[in-house]
Amino acid sequence: WTYFVVTDSCMLLFSAGESYEVVVRYMLNHYGFFPATMYFEFCPDLASSAPFCIVREMEATARTPLAVELGPVAPYKPFQVVTYKPVDTIIVEGVPPDRYAQKGSESLLKLKNSLINYSYHDCVTYYIFVYYILSFLYFIPRGLLNCALKMKNYSHRFHLLLHLEEIQMEVDIRKYDLHKQTMTQDQSNRKLLTLGVPGVAENRPSVLRGDCLRVSKSEDTVQPITVYTGYVHRVELDSVKLGFSKRLLQTFISNMKFDVEFTINRFPLKLQHRAVELAVKHQLEEVLFPSAHSRQSSLLPFISILFSRMFNRQLENNPEQHAAVECIVAGSSKPAPHIVFGPPGTGKTVTLVEAMNQVSRVDPSAHMLACAPSNSACDLLCERLMVHMNPYKVYRMYASSRDPNSKYCNLDPTQNGFVFPEKEVLMKYAVIVTTMVTAGRLVSGGIPVGHFTHVFVDEGGQAVEPECIIAIAGLLNPKNGQLVLAGDPKQLGPILRSPFALQHELGLSLLERLMNHNTLYQKCLDSGHFDTRFVTKLLQNYRSHPAILKVPNELFYENELQVHADQWDREAYCNWEYLPKKGFPVIFHGVMGKDEREANSPSFFNVSEIEVLVDYLIKLMETQGKKGLPKLSAKDIGIIAPYSKQVEKVKKALKSVSALSDFKELKVGSVEEFQGQERKIIMVSTVRSSISYVKMDQDFNIGFLSNEKRFNVAMTRAKSLLIVVGNPVILNKDPTWEKFINYCVNERGYTGFDFKDAEGEDDVVSRLATLRISTASEGLYSYT
Ligand SMILES: Nc1ncnc2c1ncn2[C@@H]1O[C@H](COP(=O)(O)OP(=O)(O)OP(=O)(O)O)[C@@H](O)[C@H]1O
């Protein structure tokens, strides 16, 4: 090759029709995906005319064999959205999963259909949309939404907000309808048909066991069209198994094409509608809108004598936790709720668990309901309760929608599903642990009003108020019952779709509403302190190394959080040889990856980030138990990724780590699955690497960018080592991430790709955008 160096002062001269070949070489120091922009400036006539440019975009990828193996199985091909037309139909009912609607505790108190009762089939998107706009402009009593929430307007206002949310859900779910899809007969159960639903693991669309889908044969064009309802028997990563009527199974042949319509599951919504009505019926005003004058006299001095010893001895060193347990057991806030709040790792869950143990000891006849919005948070509560409580006193109740492979209390293997025992059986347990929504089954099952002397709600900031009320209205004794709410409004909150419902504060949890709007839960202006009978604020973090907490503490907790984690535990990885800086157990590993999709799944993955994660994992396994490092098991490590496809690919990659024999014990999951959890080592893969998808993340409320609550939860799970892998150029566009990356750079915890260069590249691109240029894409140069 002969090279010619072209500069401003040393130009290359061309005659018309002449060409010059430009060879580009990439020198890569890291694996990853490296786009680059190259521009050529041409001066047609040196003396007079203005120069013009031609721009070429180039990309290079460098991948290990593992990354090649994890790469897309097929090019991404999004589903086409089908325009739906109303048609005359005949409905053929399908077969729900076995024992889905168990007798026993079921349906003694019926659920009403909600006020807006339209048939799904008539719900053409535009109709809903028009209805939505019209109803909002003309019919909705605006005063109801604009005035403060009171007991007088409690049920009306929540009915309205829940309807607004439901209408938006109806509009949103239409986007997932499928056209000309094939199904296959399930090999293990030939009565079921399998339908591929890409994105189902990420709730796009949200489908649970027991939900129903409607399908019609694509070739069926003569009206009335036969529509078959299929019930979901099982949800898998990218597919669902459906139970249809015999009529469809008998005529089913492979490769038959179907149009599929998803429906929203109205069960949780109906429960919420019923709960807000019951709250009014059972006069929960003193629980939901407590005031100082309704307070009962406290038994506190008497109770303090009753227990001087904690079941969990650790709590004895923390006066706030100790006092909270005393207040709860004494019922000193009754009938007002007691709130335990505080940043991550400050012992909110252990305080609730201790209070439950003490209540059970002081009053063996007490009946407690322990709830949380998610099953993973309920499992954690249950696990911690079992440490000191007689297991026969505790009942973990799962919803029928839960995969029957879970091995817990109300699973009946002979019936391949969850059973709901008779109310007499349930009423014998001292503690029932269940999600708020499933607590609605206790009301339906006829558990008498006021049966529960105590209701404990963990992660209370994560649920909308009507969801929380499901576990209270009709179950808690409105006069003598004690409600305890624990949570942190700065961690993940409820997910809502309707902008109107959001605007009118349906997104506010009961815990947050009380803290924001009720003076009993606010600091006293004179003393500057909370009234500890009503509020316990925990500030001592027992989980993490201070370096891990630094940024969340500054961003979300005004630096109030104090580090009290055991020194030996929190410093366990401070001397790890692979830390960029000894003594600073936080790593940000910059990776120029590519966020890809495959086949027709809308979810994202990034193989370059997985390579880095696996590399760290191998290093961790190789060094464990050596040079003062603790022995590690897979249970000590957690990997968090914001997209289900990345979770799936990481799980696949873990099989290749031979040093990790029990890799199934290593939890890989979304931030939502990690709320309330902790691990010695947490690795986070942020995945996002293209700026063009950031808007999509905002619209679907997915990913890490523009969601500081998700950032907060992910960053505060690690005890002694936090490794974050991500694209610094993209993440730096978000102020929260920018702060974290700057922190890592300044503390010398940053490693990997040198992003300053890429930011320079960014500048070039924006400068080019201001020029009059023509662009064209070049081919992909690939080094494997
Ligand atoms: N008083 C204490 N002394 C020592 N360790 C404690 C104390 N209280 C809590 N811990 C420990 O701190 C860790 C965090 O506790 P816990 O999970 O209850 O916190 P949390 O506030 O519920 O966290 P999150 O907000 O993340 O859900 C646990 O390992 C727990 O055992």
UniProtKB/TrEMBL annotation:
EC top class, as a word = hydrolase
Q: Which GO terms describe its molecular function?
A: 5'-3' RNA helicase activity; ATP binding; hydrolase activity; RNA binding
Query: CDD domains recorded for this chain?
Result: DEXXQc_Helz-like (cd18038), SF1_C_Upf1 (cd18808)
User: GO CC terms for this protein?
Assistant: P-body
Please report the organism this UniProt entry assigns to the protein: Mastacembelus armatus
- Pfam families given in the database record: AAA_11, AAA_12, MOV-10_beta-barrel, Mov-10_helical, MOV-10_Ig-like
The protein here is known as: RNA helicase
The organism sits in which domain of life? Answer: Eukaryota
User: Has UniProt tagged this entry with the keyword Ligase?
Assistant: no
Q: GO biological process: what's one of them?
A: regulatory ncRNA-mediated gene silencing
Q: Which residues form the DNA2/NAM7 helicase helicase domain?
A: 318-401, 422-498
Q: What is its main location?
A: cytoplasm
Looking at the record, the residues that make up the Helicase MOV-10 helical domain are 142-175
Domain Helicase MOV-10 Ig-like stretches: 6-60
Task: Give all residue intervals belonging to the Helicase MOV-10-like beta-barrel domain.
Answer: 176-262
The reactions it catalyses are:
ATP + H2O = ADP + phosphate + H(+)
Q: Gene3D superfamilies from the xrefs?
A: P-loop containing nucleotide triphosphate hydrolases (3.40.50.300)
Which spans are transmembrane here? 124-145
Q: What is its EC number?
A: 3.6.4.13
InterPro entries, A to Z: DNA2/NAM7-like_C, DNA2/NAM7_AAA_11, MOV-10-like_beta-barrel, MOV-10/SDE3_DEXXQ/H-box, Mov-10_helical, MOV-10_Ig-like, P-loop_NTPase, SF1_C_Upf1
